[in-house]
Amino acid sequence: MTQKLKKHRRSDKAGLPPGSLIHVGEKKMGDVALHLMRYGVDVLDERSLSDFHDYERKDSAGVIDWLDVVGLHEAPLIEEIGETFSIHPLVLEDILNTEQRPKTDEYEDFLYVVLKMLDIDEQTGDLTIEQVSFILKDNLVISFQERIGDVFEPVRERIRSTAGRFRRLGADYLLYALMDSVVDRYFVILERLGEQIEDTEDLLLAHPDQETVRSIYKMKRELLILRHAVWPLREAVNTIRKTESSLIQLQTRTYFGDLYDHVIQNIDTVENFRETVSGMLDLYLSSLSNRMNDVMKVLTVIATLFIPLTFIVGIYGMNFKYMPELEWKLGYPFVWVIMGFIAFAMIYLFKRKKWL
Amino acid sequence: MTQKLKKHRRSDKAGLPPGSLIHVGEKKMGDVALHLMRYGVDVLDERSLSDFHDYERKDSAGVIDWLDVVGLHEAPLIEEIGETFSIHPLVLEDILNTEQRPKTDEYEDFLYVVLKMLDIDEQTGDLTIEQVSFILKDNLVISFQERIGDVFEPVRERIRSTAGRFRRLGADYLLYALMDSVVDRYFVILERLGEQIEDTEDLLLAHPDQETVRSIYKMKRELLILRHAVWPLREAVNTIRKTESSLIQLQTRTYFGDLYDHVIQNIDTVENFRETVSGMLDLYLSSLSNRMNDVMKVLTVIATLFIPLTFIVGIYGMNFKYMPELEWKLGYPFVWVIMGFIAFAMIYLFKRKKWL
Amino acid sequence: MTQKLKKHRRSDKAGLPPGSLIHVGEKKMGDVALHLMRYGVDVLDERSLSDFHDYERKDSAGVIDWLDVVGLHEAPLIEEIGETFSIHPLVLEDILNTEQRPKTDEYEDFLYVVLKMLDIDEQTGDLTIEQVSFILKDNLVISFQERIGDVFEPVRERIRSTAGRFRRLGADYLLYALMDSVVDRYFVILERLGEQIEDTEDLLLAHPDQETVRSIYKMKRELLILRHAVWPLREAVNTIRKTESSLIQLQTRTYFGDLYDHVIQNIDTVENFRETVSGMLDLYLSSLSNRMNDVMKVLTVIATLFIPLTFIVGIYGMNFKYMPELEWKLGYPFVWVIMGFIAFAMIYLFKRKKWL
Amino acid sequence: MTQKLKKHRRSDKAGLPPGSLIHVGEKKMGDVALHLMRYGVDVLDERSLSDFHDYERKDSAGVIDWLDVVGLHEAPLIEEIGETFSIHPLVLEDILNTEQRPKTDEYEDFLYVVLKMLDIDEQTGDLTIEQVSFILKDNLVISFQERIGDVFEPVRERIRSTAGRFRRLGADYLLYALMDSVVDRYFVILERLGEQIEDTEDLLLAHPDQETVRSIYKMKRELLILRHAVWPLREAVNTIRKTESSLIQLQTRTYFGDLYDHVIQNIDTVENFRETVSGMLDLYLSSLSNRMNDVMKVLTVIATLFIPLTFIVGIYGMNFKYMPELEWKLGYPFVWVIMGFIAFAMIYLFKRKKWL
Amino acid sequence: MTQKLKKHRRSDKAGLPPGSLIHVGEKKMGDVALHLMRYGVDVLDERSLSDFHDYERKDSAGVIDWLDVVGLHEAPLIEEIGETFSIHPLVLEDILNTEQRPKTDEYEDFLYVVLKMLDIDEQTGDLTIEQVSFILKDNLVISFQERIGDVFEPVRERIRSTAGRFRRLGADYLLYALMDSVVDRYFVILERLGEQIEDTEDLLLAHPDQETVRSIYKMKRELLILRHAVWPLREAVNTIRKTESSLIQLQTRTYFGDLYDHVIQNIDTVENFRETVSGMLDLYLSSLSNRMNDVMKVLTVIATLFIPLTFIVGIYGMNFKYMPELEWKLGYPFVWVIMGFIAFAMIYLFKRKKWL
Ligand SMILES: [Mg+2]
Ligand SMILES: [Mg+2]
Ligand SMILES: [Mg+2]
Ligand SMILES: [Mg+2]
Ligand SMILES: [Mg+2]
Ligand SMILES: [Mg+2]
Ligand SMILES: [Mg+2]
Ligand SMILES: [Mg+2]
Ligand SMILES: [Mg+2]
Ligand SMILES: [Mg+2]
Ligand SMILES: [Mg+2]
Ligand SMILES: [Mg+2]
Ligand SMILES: [Mg+2]
Ligand SMILES: [Mg+2]
Ligand SMILES: [Mg+2]
Ligand SMILES: [Mg+2]
Ligand SMILES: [Mg+2]
Ligand SMILES: [Mg+2]
Ligand SMILES: [Mg+2]
Ligand SMILES: [Mg+2]
Ligand SMILES: [Mg+2]
Ligand SMILES: [Mg+2]
Ligand SMILES: [Mg+2]
Ligand SMILES: [Mg+2]
Ligand SMILES: [Mg+2]
Ligand SMILES: [Mg+2]
Ligand SMILES: [Mg+2]
Ligand SMILES: [Mg+2]
Ligand SMILES: [Mg+2]
Ligand SMILES: [Mg+2]
Ligand SMILES: [Mg+2]
């Protein structure tokens, strides 16, 4: 059975009761995938669930469950997960509405974090944007994403490895690791954008054209997207770092502090790029004006040089019966001398005005 | 009897005592309509009142009255309502003056909320703006609007339905639901504006003209209106969420928190659009300059190519008696060779300057 | 005795001790006028004082004195008033210096409020600006203004009328009423400015010229004046509203809260107008560029069409003895055909470039 | 012995230990001058010290010493003064470094205030800038300035006079009076700048040229200097007003409050001027564009009118043997008719486009 | 063995666990150098360590160790140092990642400070940027820099000298001295930039060209770098000044207060320069427009003067058989008179329009 990808829009929800579970955004993949990772110091159980009913919570101390939900378009599944873990309907609504702004909401027994995962499409080079939500409960992290991707794979590797300290740490550290891997991707994107900016700058100084303006405009828009991803994230990370909730242990707060630093660095770079890109358009306009000036000078030099001369030859092209100069023996060379004098005078003037 | 719609202006009130009940703004409909909805878990009574004296308050626990007043131009009616429910004259004045800025005022036994309901006129595509005020008292919500509309209809549907939990919730939840339906409409407007912006962008890159500038200017003004509607609303919703008044129950505050999120999202989008639209004018100007450059190059190439040649043919159009070249057998082809050479040299120069 | 109106400037006070009573500003009327209004529930006494010594304070409960001083250029009178009511010399200095910024200063037993009264000169249509100061003491308000005007007349009417509640209210309510009548005038000015802005917008889109720029510039300056009047007023009104002084009664604070709303509305409108007006210059420049483009296209089309043709006819105007084409029977029509072909090719090219 | 005025720069101090006493800035006068004024209710002793060792402190109640040090280039003298009055080396360093930003530093037993004294050079009309530092101790004020000037002269006059209350007031009042006389000078400078701005505006509307741009640019820079003088001064004055130090008496705080007002007024005016001046460049550019438009229209009208006509006369200047029109009896007048028709058509079109 | 300098990028760390020690940035020198300075009132021991194992801590009261690590590309060495002094892995990661933003992090028993050392490359005149980190523990300062330089040399000299008080002061003073020497370098850079700005201004007014724009653009970027170095440094220094940690003694706080002043001065100057440089581009554009105007006027004067005249001589160059004027005796001089009249009329008009 073929299934068309359809896009729900925010306006489809206008007038519906709060907590109405409707997926807002593009449907980015076929079936929803559930992936469970259960780990502790000596425990490691990793599997894909074909049905959420296969999931069973086991409350043994130090054993952490990470449930990764990929695909947001099956509202009933999300609702069921919500009921199982007693998540407030307004949170479920936010998870499904992919136009959230990054934030952290504190509830009595869980934390809800939502942020934007950005990436660069390898084919088109365009920026892709995806919403990722996290629920942090006691010994449990649920992540919701829109599309399969490899951003969390390094985290899985670190859990699988027995070498690291990861399995000894709590669910809060898992939340940190997942958020950190999202933020790390921002650095990659900003580096690429930085290269693009440098290329455009070189182009702008060498031979600016309308195409360059389009690429400036495109970068401006991508920076706007990045800005909307990172600015509110600062507050979201800070809320976790400063929360009074016991879900975040003291030692993990240092890690969230480091993450906070990374977000600030991203904000700095974004603002820096924004200013550079915004200055480019001025540079482009000044460069255009400069060239226009050059064009106008050439036109003016040629025109003001030859128009008077053409007038002179026009005079002696007249057919009056009585024009004494025409009869002179040296009339013709004399005209050349006059024209030569005028031409030299003009050129001297242009030189003085530095137009030549 | 025909009745002319007249508009009172803010300046008509200059010098009047505070609390003077004069409707400020356009009169947007004929008669004032009163609609009462009385509901509780097992109660549902809905009717139009032709006269406010038909209204009678019944204080039974869990029964909520929603009185919807449509049309603000009958000041005595508003005054009577004010007296019945002991509303401060300054509040009544604000209800009638449709140039309020969104806000929440806390009084001892009621909350006063005023905001802007925006819509798109289906005929003209223009933004319409209407002021909506709410009074929240114990088990009572009074809404004041300027014009009949269907924005509150979904709320009425939810009250009528026995399925939902609506009737079990308090008057504060009703206030939330009404405000939410107003804010939901902003999303619809912003989506349409977003489409317009994208269309204009395409137009701007394809073939910009003065018409595009007008539409940019129009969008700028609509965004200014939206901005004035949403920015102060943030503070207004926050005041409700954080109020110490017992009129707002704990569980409803979560809903107002969600509404607050929506307002912030609206603000973000508005600011985003504002920046995009403001950048468009620069794009337009750069595109104009570019085209001017092209025009100038064409003019310059043609003029500097032919003006010297025209000068040369002018020379041999002179009628001097003694012009040796005219007598030469190969004078004419020789002139062609010289002109050909000059033309090629010019074209070579233009190519090097990349004007061709 | 004729008396020349002279203007003292702020710099005339440089180096003088603080509290030096010198009138700074233009002298705006001939003699200083004193007007006393004494009222209570059953009392109403209103008269002009030709001499301040005629004034006598009577301290009976519920009787309020409003002393209105019109004209600030007689420093000794102001000093005498100051001594009579024990007003700090620095306050007297501020009253006389008409370049104050709106503010409220709290002293032990009185409040000092200064603000700007703006108006539109009926003859010239220009904005006039006047400084108004208020002293609020127990059962006493002294107002100082620079020029006779009718702004306070409605307040006097309300005091005279036995119908209203005015006479039952305190001196703080009188202060509110006076300040409110000043702020109400701002609405009137802003409405007129709003109309001017709309007119200028229409003009700008229809046929912009240098005159329009001048009127934009004038509006910009008037908005700057308005801005300086309303922005600090917000803080000044808020200080009264939140003061711990017993001079402001609880019930009057609600009225000052309403006044505060009005000031905020004024600020909003001013900022709104400022943005609109500032965008106008960009619109004007884009419109100029557009027109220049049109002019250039016409020039370019005509010039590039005829310059090559003129060259061709120039060729056959040469007087070479041996020019075979001149002898051809069909030489002349042939040249016409060639020129026709060139003209059509050019026109086709212009059409494709959308210059025609 | 002649002595060359040399300028130390901030970078000469790079790497030196803190508190290194090196004068940074231009040396603005020959020898350092010391002037002592000792006064109390019945005491007045005023003299110039040729040597700082001549100074002797006398601690009698109510007797205040004001030591005025003019010239900062003799570091050992400043060091000696510092040791005598136990001033922290970092403060001495700040006194000598004339690139301080206005500030107030509170130390245990003294206050340190530094600000900028601005003036207008009578010869060149340029803004001059000088750093003034104050040390306030018990019954003692030390002022440090770079150059002899008459700004403090009015304060000396008031001290000398037995009439005023000055001598009855404390050292904190002296500090106030000195700072006030510096700030008063700002008003004078701003008034002159205001006149310059108005002159430039008139010039800009009448006949703008590159010279006007230069003067706009000069005003911009002077406003930048003023801005750097007044903005931090606000904080500096506020620190004094709010200090917990007993060096500032309660009654003097009112005076510092007045000074604070003056600084705010200066800030307002500076920002106002900055906005006006910044708008001037836009006005200039719009005026330039307008003129360019006029120039282009003239060129276009003349060129498009005569180029086609010149083409026509060119046709009949050709020398083809067989050109029937040339033989016509009415050929010549006919051509005139055609050209007349073309000219009228063109002129009609230009009128319609409002280019004429 | 030759060793290629390779650059690690921030993105190489994406997905790695926190605290992964990888050097991010350019490798700026060959081998890592360790330099130890151990000093107290009577102690001075200074040597280069070829191996970190040569280092041995000696805890005697009043003896301070300053370990200067130059070169950050040997991660294992940094890790070893980190273990020896129990530094948190996240701090080590920050030390190695040279894209930190200046900050101070407080840990239980140490302070971590990171800032940017800027310098001017003597060969190229370009700004170089280097990251410097400091660890302050009890009686210990560790500094980490990327490259050998002479910025800290004056500090070493002051330690070596027995004259100064340096050796009597604590490790916190050493930290201050090192940070101060970095900040002092900013003044040097800003002075040079200030000179460049002045030179560019002169150039801009004398003969602006595209090269000037490039140098404006370059200054803009350097100011952006400076801005990112100094703005966050303010907070970093303030954190030290206000810290509750006992690592910073009371008397040293005054010195950090002075450093804070210097940072603020730097910020002021940077913002000042930014505004000046940003205004330059506007000046350049206005200057370009002005020149274009001049060019256009010359073209227009010449063209509108000669085009009509050329038309006239064209008329009498026509070959019509019947052209009465050609037969006139005074036809030729008559034409001259007419042309002379037209030329004078044109010149009069141009004069009136002030184009000549
Ligand atoms: Mg909803
Ligand atoms: Mg939500
Ligand atoms: Mg994904
Ligand atoms: Mg990270
Ligand atoms: Mg950066
Ligand atoms: Mg710009
Ligand atoms: Mg009113
Ligand atoms: Mg109101
Ligand atoms: Mg409605
Ligand atoms: Mg909603
Ligand atoms: Mg509006
Ligand atoms: Mg967005
Ligand atoms: Mg713009
Ligand atoms: Mg004074
Ligand atoms: Mg004052
Ligand atoms: Mg008046
Ligand atoms: Mg009012
Ligand atoms: Mg408004
Ligand atoms: Mg503008
Ligand atoms: Mg130093
Ligand atoms: Mg200092
Ligand atoms: Mg001086
Ligand atoms: Mg003063
Ligand atoms: Mg002003
Ligand atoms: Mg500008
Ligand atoms: Mg990482
Ligand atoms: Mg880090
Ligand atoms: Mg180094
Ligand atoms: Mg320093
Ligand atoms: Mg400066
Ligand atoms: Mg600027």
Automatic annotation (TrEMBL), chains A, B, C, D, E:
GO terms for molecular function: cobalt ion binding; cobalt ion transmembrane transporter activity; magnesium ion binding; magnesium ion transmembrane transporter activity. It is found in: Cell membrane; Membrane. It is a multi-pass membrane protein. The chain crosses the membrane at residues 298-318, 330-350. It comes from the Bacteria. Its main location: membrane. SUPFAM superfamilies: CorA soluble domain-like, Magnesium transport protein CorA, transmembrane region. Keywords: Cell membrane, Ion transport, Magnesium, Membrane, Transmembrane, Transmembrane helix, Transport. GO terms for cellular component: plasma membrane. Pfam families: CorA. Mediates influx of magnesium ions. Belongs to the CorA metal ion transporter (MIT) (TC 1.A.35) family. This is Magnesium transport protein CorA. It comes from Aminobacterium colombiense (strain DSM 12261 / ALA-1). The lineage of its organism: Bacteria, Thermotogati, Synergistota, Synergistia, Synergistales. The gene is corA.
